[in-house]
Amino acid sequence: MTQRQTRIFELILVISIAFLPSIVYSFYLILTGTTDPQGTEGLIPRYLNGIMHAILSIVLMFYVINKQDKTISDIGLSFKFKWSDLWHAIGLIFLAGILRVLIAGPISAIFPDFLQIAENPKNTGFIDTNYMPFLVLYMIFIPLQEELIVRGFTMKSVFDLTESKTLAVLISVLVQFSYHLYQGLIPALMLLPFFIVLAIYFIRYGNLKPVILAHILTDLIFLLYKQ
C-alpha cells in the first residue's frame, strides 16, 4: 500500500475499533424501536467494559500516532494545564447551549413535545445506579476516548489527507452523531450543536484540552441533572 492508503486504513481501523460496535448497536436500537435491555445487575461489568474499551482504543490510537512519527501535540494535546483551557471549555458549553435554545425554541413552537423528547434521551438507564464511583469513571473515560479519537485523531487525519477543514468537521460530527442515535433521533439531533461547536473550535485553534474538558463537564452535569 502507498503511504496515503496506509494512513486511510489506519484511520478506519482506529475509528472502527473505537466506535463501530456502538454505531451498529445505535442503528439497531433506532431502526427496530427496541430499548437497551441492560439491567441494573449488569451495570458494573458494563462500566468496566466501557472503561477498558476506551483505554484500549486510546492505546491503539497512540500506537498509530507513534507509528506515523507523530506526537500528541500533533492532535492538539499536551499535559500542561492552563486555566484558560477550563474557561474555554465553559465557554464552549455555554455557546452550544445557546445554539440548542435557538434551534429548539422555534421547533417547540410547532411541535410542543419536541423539547421534552430532546431532554429525555432513551437508553440512558445505565446512569441510574448505586455504583456512583464506577459511573463517574465511566463518564470520564468515554468522553476522553471520544474526543481524543473522533475529534483530535480523526480530524487531524482527515485534514492531512484532504486539506479540507470542512470535511474534517463533517466526518467528525457525523461519526459522533451516528453512535449517539441510541438515545433516539431527536436527542441525537439536539447534540449536533455541541458536536459542531467542539469540532469548529478544534479545527480553528488546534487545542484539544478545552474540547475534552467541555465534553466531560457536560456529561457530568447531565449526570447530576438526572440524579
Q: How do the strands and helices of this protein lay out in sequence?
A:
Blueprint (H helix, E strand, L loop, with lengths): L2 H30 L10 H25 L15 H28 L3 H5 L13 H31 L2 H14 L6 H5 L2 H14 L3 H18 L1
Helix pairs in contact: 1-2, 1-5, 2-5, 3-8, 3-9, 5-6, 5-8, 5-9, 6-8
Question: What keywords describe this structure?
Answer:
9 helices, single chain, mainly alpha, 227 residues
Number of domains: 1
Enumerate how many helices there are, as a single number.
Answer: 9
- The beta-strand count equals 0
Structural class assignment: mainly alpha
Q: List segments where confidence is low: pLDDT < 50 over at least 5 consecutive residues.
A: none
Q: What's the helical proportion of residues?
A: over 70%
Biggest pleated-sheet summary: none
End-to-end Cα distance? 51 Å
In summary, what is this structure?
Helices cover 75% and strands 0% of the residues. It has helices at residues 3-32, 43-67, 83-110, 114-118, 132-162, 165-178, 185-189, 192-205, 209-226.
Any overview of this molecule?
- 75% of the residues lie in helices and 0% in strands.
- α1 packs across α5 and α5 packs antiparallel against α9.
- It has one domain.
- It is mainly alpha-helical and 227 residues long.
